[in-house]
Amino acid sequence: MTNQDLLQVVQEYGSPVYVYNAEKIEAQYKRLTAAFKKVKQVKINYAVKALSNIAILQTMKNLGAGLDTVSIQEVRLGLAAGVKPENIIFTPNGVSLSEIERVAAMGVQINIDNLSILEQFGTKHPKTPVCIRINPHVMAGGNTNISVGHIDSKFGISIHQIPHILRIVENTGMKINGVHMHTGSDILDIEVFLYASEILFDTAKHFEDLEFIDFGSGFKVPYKEGDIETDIEEFGEKLGERFNAFAKAYKKPLTLAFEPGKFLVSEAGKFLASVNVVKQTTSTVFAQIDSGFNHLIRPMLYGSQHEIHNISNPDGKQRFYSVVGYICETDTFANNRRIAEISEEDILAFSNAGAYCFSMASNYNSRYRPAEVLWKNGESQLIRKRETFDDLVHNQIPLKELQSIEV
Predict the structure, then answer these.
(1) Which interval of the chain is the signal sequence (predicted)?
(2) pLDDT tens-place string over residues 338-354
(3) What pLDDT is attached to residue 193?
């Protein structure tokens, strides 16, 4: 997408707006599958939580991906997008047994991450195959909020509790058809991931009826020019070789599974916002935009850095700005950042806005959530309408004595 393409999107759909490049999503999917070309059976399950728009799920389905879901609502979105139940895996954390049972009844692959639910589910539904999520006790991830495989994590069943797992499996007669781990996001050190993978292989040896081994995801993507990222090609070569050796020793066909989210959609997304005010203080020049952390929370939540470009004046003189939002609370996107000279009504483009941006958006300050647009084959397609005031009050119920008052 060129700057002119992005400006055209704003002109057509307004600001702020999220735009996703379908060609970039496809390129990332093909890059990941090519990295594991030496493995006979590879399954990519897109992590729905990264970006759950039905049009994106349909795009993944058309590429050949399955879905990794964490709630019954995500499962229903996947089914609504036309994804077959057998191509969906359900990996929740801390949900009720009843939610897991409802999802299992849909024909979706269940992935259980705690002993209590494993025993209850196995006792009631011993004929339903399940996957087990293991906590390998490996610290990995770029931020403590997204590092989920360490010893104090709430995710997964500890590798030290494998004897408990085996006792439950034996007592219930349930079938384990997969083992799974996910150590965290923004993983850069391949060796740490490979070390955790060996723990998963050791776990897999305990189960005779496995159909797949799921290594999660968490690959780091670049957030700025020259930024470091996971070397997918090297990783595919090393893990693929080790997986093939294990599959040969296991003497049964095995599928190597992954569940990438950010890797597939992060770089495909742009968030476009208009500059309301350029405000000079005694020491700072603020560019205040028509958005806030209600639309892009990651910089405030994780300290993530999103490149910001002034696409209205891309060749302008570089100046220093702090880019902030309109929320009545501190909502800083960038401090003292070099950006081409900004004027009021210029359009700023935030990079890496495909993952965990709209999906974490809110109506804080009673602001509307923006529209979403898919850019495909040189054309834009609206895939979610901008919210209106009617959307904001749709489920609200006025006090009885005031119900006759028109809003």
Answers:
(1) none
(2) 999 999 999 999 999 99
(3) 87
Cis peptide before 16 (omega within 30 of 0): yes
Q: List, in sequence order, every residue forming a beta bridge with 68; answer none if it has no partner.
A: 47, 89
Residue list, annotated binding site: 218, 298, 302, 329, 356
Q: Which residues belong to the active site?
A: 328
Per the annotation, where are the binding residues for substrate? Answer: 298, 302, 329, 356
Please name the amino acid found at residue 383. Answer: I
Residue ranges in the chain modelled with pLDDT below 50:
140-150
Kindly state the helix (H) or strand (E) to which residue 235 belongs, with its residue range. helix 232-250
Q: How does DSSP classify residue 405?
A: S
Q: What residue type is 26 in one-letter code? A: E
Give residue for tokens 């850019």: 375
Give pLDDT, residue 86. Answer: 97
User: pLDDT value at position 338?
Assistant: 97
pLDDT of residue 359: 97
CATH 3.20.20.10 fits 36-260, yes or no: yes
Query: CB neighbours of 404 closer than 8 A, spacing ≥ 6?
Result: none
Specify binding-site residues for pyridoxal 5'-phosphate.
Answer: 218, 356
To the nearest 10°, report the CA torsion of 198, 204, 206, 209.
-160
Beta carbons of 287 and 278 less than 8 angstroms apart: yes
Q: Which of these, 243, 220, 215, 222, lies nearest to 230 by C-alpha position?
A: 220
Helix ranges restricted to H, 54-161? 54-63, 72-80, 97-105, 115-124
DSSP-derived secondary structure for 356-373:
SSGGG---GGGPPPPEEE
* For the chain, domain boundaries: 36-260, 269-393
The answer to whether the beta carbons of residues 93 and 113 sit under 8 Å apart is: yes
The CATH class for the domain spanning 269-393 reads: mainly beta
